[in-house]
Amino acid sequence: MNKPAPIVAELGRPETPEETAARKAESSRAYRASQNVRSLVAALIVTLAVVAVIVFAVPRGEPASAPRVDLPGIAADVESTMDRPVIVPELGTFWRVNKAELTSGSTVVWDVTLAPKDEDERGFIKFAQAFDADSSWAPQRLNGTAPTDTVTIDGREWDVYEPGDAGAKQNVTYAIGTQAGSDYVLLYGSRSADSTAELAASLTSQIDSLSEAE
């Protein structure tokens, strides 16, 4: 004998075949939905794990440092090219060289850009030795600024330039220049007058040597 169909409590009677089929279909749909959610969560966890490995486990290395400028070597090449001595700024423990080159033009110039080594120090000073030039050359570098005063540094007289608005575009706020034999030496940049004077004083012996060689 066939076993009678169980009575469903919610219905108070046995399920019809159609109701049984619908119940089983809904159960299957709910199961598949739960499996899809589990699969999605598992995939997300795997993805996060891969990202974590890439971020934390892969060697990243340090940023490449800027190439060192060989100031003495470049200066020697310039002396050979020009067949005459050039002034080489003394870096000491304070300065580093950002750039050193021979600039051609109507006046050939030995250019060196200096900046403090300490990252907490701000500003820069550009050194320029203009060959066979005098103070009339300086305004070409200072957007037409003429000297407004003089200052004596280590027994040598320097012209003082205050570019003001004329130097704002190049961030040049102060400059001094002096004759070194047949050449004109200019220091200009965004450092203070005292800092610029200290650099100028360190050049005195070389400037004197050029002057005495004339």
Secondary structure layout plus pairing:
Blueprint: E1 7-8, E2 13-14, H1 17-57, H2 71-82, E3 95-103, E4 109-116, E5 125-130, H3 138-141, E6 149-153, E7 156-161, E8 174-180, E9 183-189, H4 193-202, H5 204-213
Antiparallel strand pairs: 1-2, 3-4, 4-5, 5-9, 6-7, 7-8, 8-9
Could you please describe the fold and organization of this structure?
The protein has 214 residues and is an alpha+beta fold. Helix content is 36%, strand content 24%. The protein is built from 5 helices and 9 strands; from the N terminus they run E-E-H-H-E-E-E-H-E-E-E-E-H-H. The strands form 2 sheets. A 7-stranded antiparallel β-sheet has the order 3-4-5-9-8-7-6, with helices on one face. It has a two-stranded antiparallel sheet with strand order 1-2. Strand 1 and strand 2 (13-14) form a beta hairpin. The radius of gyration is 39 Å and the shape is rod-shaped.
Summarize the structure.
The protein is α+β, with helices and mostly antiparallel strands and 214 residues long. The protein is built from 5 helices and 9 strands.
Order of helices and strands: EEHHEEEHEEEEHH
Average predicted local confidence, pLDDT: 84
Main beta sheet: 7 strands, antiparallel
Number of helices: 5
- Backbone shape: rod-shaped
Rg on CA atoms, Å: 39 Å
Low-confidence stretches at least 5 residues in length (pLDDT < 50)? none
Oligomer classification = single chain
Helical percentage: 25-40%
SS-based class:
alpha+beta
Number of strands: 9
Strand order of the largest sheet: 3-4-5-9-8-7-6
